[in-house]
Design a protein that fits this description.
Layout: H1 2-41, H2 47-52, E1 55-56, E2 59-60, H3 77-90, H4 95-98, H5 100-109, H6 113-116, H7 123-131, E3 136-142, E4 157-161, E5 171-178, H8 184-192, E6 196-204, H9 205-215, E7 220-225, H10 229-242, E8 247-249, H11 256-267, H12 283-292, E9 296-302, H13 305-315, H14 322-327, H15 338-357, H16 363-379, E10 402-408, E11 412-418, E12 420-422, E13 435-446, E14 451-463, E15 466-467, E16 475-485, E17 489-503, E18 507-520, E19 523-536, E20 542-553, E21 558-571, E22 574-583, E23 590-599
Parallel strand pairs: 15-17
Antiparallel strand pairs: 1-2, 3-4, 3-7, 4-5, 5-6, 6-8, 7-9, 10-11, 10-23, 11-13, 12-13, 13-14, 14-16, 16-17, 17-18, 18-19, 19-20, 20-21, 21-22, 22-23
């Protein structure tokens, strides 16, 4: 009996090995067939295969290992293709469920591959496709956030929905740095050097509205895109492929807006969008390239809750007890006019929403008060109309890089160039008024004697956030760079500012306290002082400004400066500027300057 069992066992082992050899032979034959095909056609260099892998300049911009089948897939598209085919045939690595669009393209482009693929169920993918119904797509642009340097360039994400009637309950495709950091300056620093993982996600659109339109009080622009139903399907599938992976987030290039362009190139392979961005991809620039490629069909503007409250506030004639009324549970003053009573209640209701969004009011008290004031408002029996003026569409603003050519009355010529973004002298149509940011502004001067670098501004931010009866923000500024000062010597310069700004939407009046630090190897100059300025945007395509400042320095000298300027924008990307400056410490104290601005 033992002998029979031993013989049977030996036969089983032999049969097992023979089957294994036969299976290996069949797989080798299959793989050889497909490997020969991809070698002959060089399918691994196909433009779409490289797009699916996010290849640029010879390697993938995706940094997580789980996006690749091969260990060298990030830099070797041929090995990635070969191992992908092997995994499909052997039913390994859950490839069929993990990369549906990648598999779909391979089946379309490799003959007989679909017959060799091992089929299995994909419940997670099936659930995803059932929940994400996409028949229409828009790109959404929340405007700049005036008091956050990390958000001063704005943001973009996608909205996908099945009909016009389901706009707010649609889904949003978002790419963002994964972080809980709340310090804007630290976030910007880490973002500059790839300190965060950037990830794609899908979440309800109303959550993004709550975040940007309500919490951060930012206006929102929605741009409907001209992608077909099949192209939108590819965007949805490729987003699924990316959601478990990450790329390192870089604030100026591989950011939220740049990575959305990958989805568009996947949807429509003949698009060439990403190659246009080599050093920076500011959200506004990515929107403009969509316009250039005729991808934007229509636009829609959604004003922020803050803008709505400011609009109502400006309609009120009698504001005597308004602040007390907003902050406390008090009755309306009977002496108010009917119109003011309507506006008081409209503002109270919006202010309750604002306080709830900022978690300054618990849910129970919010609901009780909200219903109470809604009831009072309904008794006045008048429908409110909010004719809030739509700002200039950002699509038609000037581009974000600028070169400036200038002639000065001391017979010198000035050339300035910067990669970003929008400064106090620019006509700010399409940008956020009161928010200015310069980055790497290089200024060169040529006079009768020599040519030299006059300044290198590493970063210059001005945030003139207007105050009113309800909102009391602090305005601030920071300037860091190298510049010529005093006896025309080069100093490292740091200038922080803090103050108050008041505005009527067309003019900004600001009062800033400030300090200047100039330092070089053997000298450090420190001042304390202030600046008062006025900026006017009252006339279309014109901008006027005036400022005076005074600084008292530690080396027993002071500096008085004054400036007036006028900028006229006569083309979308071309402006002229005329200014007059007075500076105590200049050899020639007063100068007039004529500048030509070109944006690109």
């Amino acid at each position: 009996m033992l002998k029979i069992c031993n013989i049977s066992f030996n036969k089983v082992i032999k049969i097992f090995f023979l089957n294994a050899l036969l299976f290996s032979y069949i797989n080798a034959s299959n793989n050889s067939e497909f490997n020969n095909y991809i070698n002959q056609t060089k399918l691994y260099n196909h433009n779409y295969w490289l797009k699916l892998l996010h290849y640029k300049n010879g390697e993938s911009e995706v940094d997580s290992d789980n996006f690749f089948i091969s260990k060298v897939g990030k830099k070797n598209s041929k090995e990635e293709l070969s191992e992908t085919i092997n995994a499909l045939i052997n039913g390994e690595k859950n490839l069929l469920c993990r990369f549906p669009l990648r598999v779909e393209w391979l089946k379309e482009n490799i003959p007989n591959l679909d017959k060799k693929i091992k089929i299995y169920e994909c419940p997670k993918l099936d659930k995803y496709l059932k929940e994400i119904i996409a028949k229409k797509i828009s790109i959404v642009f929340p405007s700049s956030h005036i008091n956050s340097p990390a958000s001063m360039y704005g943001h973009t994400f996608l909205k996908i929905y099945d009909s016009e009637n389901t706009s707010l309950i649609s889904n949003a495709i978002n790419y963002a740095a994964k972080t809980d950091e709340t310090n804007g300056l630290l976030f910007a620093y880490e973002g500059l050097f790839g300190g965060y993982e950037g990830r794609y996600s899908i979440l309800p659109y109303y959550e993004k509205i709550k975040e940007y339109n309500n919490l951060e009080q930012r206006d929102i622009w929605e741009y409907d895109l001209s992608f077909s139903q099949d192209e939108i399907r590819k965007i949805v599938l490729h987003t699924y492929e990316l959601m478990d992976s990450y790329s390192y987030y870089y604030f100026f290039l591989e950011n939220c807006s740049y990575n959305l362009l990958w989805l568009f190139e996947i949807a429509r392979p003949n698009l060439d969008l990403l190659s246009k961005f080599k050093l920076k991809a500011i959200p506004l620039d990515t929107l403009k390239i969509l316009k250039t490629n005729n991808l934007i069909v229509t636009s829609n503007y959604r004003y922020s809750k803050m803008k709505k409250m400011k609009y109502i506030l400006n309609k009120i004639d009698n504001k005597t007890n308004l602040k007390e009324y907003l902050e406390n549970d008090v009755l309306l003053d009977d002496n108010l006019s009917f119109e003011d009573k309507v506006n008081y209640l409209d503002l109270k209701i919006e202010y309750l929403k604002y306080k709830r969004s900022k978690n300054k009011l618990d849910k129970k008290d919010y609901i009780k008060n909200y219903l109470k004031y809604l009831k009072q408002r309904s008794e006045l029996n008048k429908v409110s109309v909010f004719n809030i003026e739509k700002p200039e569409n950002p699509l038609y603003s000037h581009d974000s890089s600028k070169v400036s050519f200038a002639y000065r009355t001391d017979e010198s010529i000035l050339v300035d160039i910067k990669p970003a973004y929008n400064d106090i002298y620019d006509v700010s149509d399409g940008y956020l008024n009161g928010a200015y940011i310069d980055f790497l502004n290089l200024g060169i001067v040529k006079n009768k004697d020599k040519t030299f670098i006059d300044k290198l501004t590493l970063l210059d931010i001005k945030s003139y956030s207007a105050r009113d009866l309800i909102f009391k923000p602090i305005s601030w500024g920071i300037n860091l760079g190298y510049k010529r000062f005093k006896n025309e010597e080069d100093y490292l310069h740091l200038k922080p500012q803090f103050g108050l700004t008041y505005s009527n939407e067309k003019e900004y009046l600001y009062f800033m306290s400030q300090s200047n630090l100039y330092t070089k190897s053997k000298e450090t100059l420190v001042s304390i002082g202030g600046e008062i300025g006025l900026i006017s945007n009252r006339f279309d395509n014109f901008k006027l400004g005036a400022s005076i400042s005074y600084d008292k320095y530690n080396k027993n000298f002071s500096n008085r400066k004054a400036e007036t300027f006028l900028t006229y924008k006569f083309l979308e990307n071309t402006s002229v500027n005329l200014s007059y400056t007075y500076d105590d410490l200049d050899v020639k104290k007063d100068k007039s300057i004529f500048r030509l601005y070109y944006y690109f």
